[in-house]
């Protein structure tokens, strides 16, 4: 059986300890402030990033360095299968970069998986790939499972500051000004791999309640067999409060917490929160 290598990019925001213990390779994306690139998870921490954007600086972002990935892949044994789980191709070229690398490095087989999303839902796919690899599954079996799993993971996000959506081109200036005046807090989700508004709701609290209502519609009973994730933008107290609500609502669900790191935080801004869930097979 060939060796299976699991690769993801930094926007899965998996803990370093998890990646080291489970042999998950991470390709970092970067944020660029004033022409200087900082690889998330390596050159800039999550707290440092949010402190910097609070001053008004908003970076651009860039995908992993293709040359670095090629160099890494060339060191792998002949016939290695690489399961590459990337953030959505709708917001980054990372997925397409893996296809390009697959044509450049002939002695390995790259299997690019477009998560069609990012952050914790992407991490769910990585963890499933790890579980299956360690159980002896083939690369093709892992790919088939991940392609099916990504279709049933649900995820919604609420932003606290519309300025970041406006500056990122997802809202017009007029929409941002009017929305801020009316205290509109859009609930966002991914459609066709892109971040789009799901509903526009007044006040942050009501927006989060709307996500909880959707969870009630899809999670039956105590939540047994479900995995729930709560994602925060450097505001763990907000996430912990939401986890307490969800744990009371779904006492038998497994609930985890993660962060919006620099690349995704560039689009959503401080104060954002995300909730994601799926039912395990």
What is the strand and helix layout of this fold?
Elements: E1 4-9, H1 16-21, E2 24-27, E3 30-33, E4 36-39, H2 46-54, E5 60-62, H3 66-74, E6 81-86, H4 94-104, E7 109-114, H5 119-134, H6 139-149, E8 154-158, H7 162-167, H8 173-181, E9 184-191, E10 194-202, H9 204-218, E11 226-232, H10 236-249, E12 254-259, H11 262-268, E13 273-279
Parallel strand pairs: 1-2, 1-6, 6-7, 11-12
Antiparallel strand pairs: 3-4, 3-5, 8-9, 8-13, 9-10, 11-13
Helix pairs in contact: 5-6
Q: For this structure, what is the CATH class of the largest domain?
A: Alpha Beta
Give the spatial strand order of the biggest sheet.
10-9-8-13-11-12
Decide which structural class fits the backbone. Answer: alpha/beta
Number of helices: 11
**Largest sheet geometry:** 6 strands, mixed
Would you give the CATH topology of the largest domain?
Answer: Hypothetical Protein Tm841, Chain: A,domain 3
Helical percentage: 40-55%
What is the straight-line distance between the termini?
25 Å
Task: Choose one word for the global shape.
Answer: globular
Number of domains: 2
Assembly classification:
single chain
Q: Roughly how many Å is the radius of gyration? A: 19 Å
Count every beta strand, where a strand is a DSSP E run of 2 or more residues. Answer: 13
Unreliable stretches covering 5 or more consecutive residues = 170-182
- CATH architecture label name of the largest domain: 2-Layer Sandwich
Q: Mean pLDDT, rounded to whole units?
A: 90
Order of helices and strands: EHEEEHEHEHEHHEHHEEHEHEHE
Strand composition percent? 25-35%
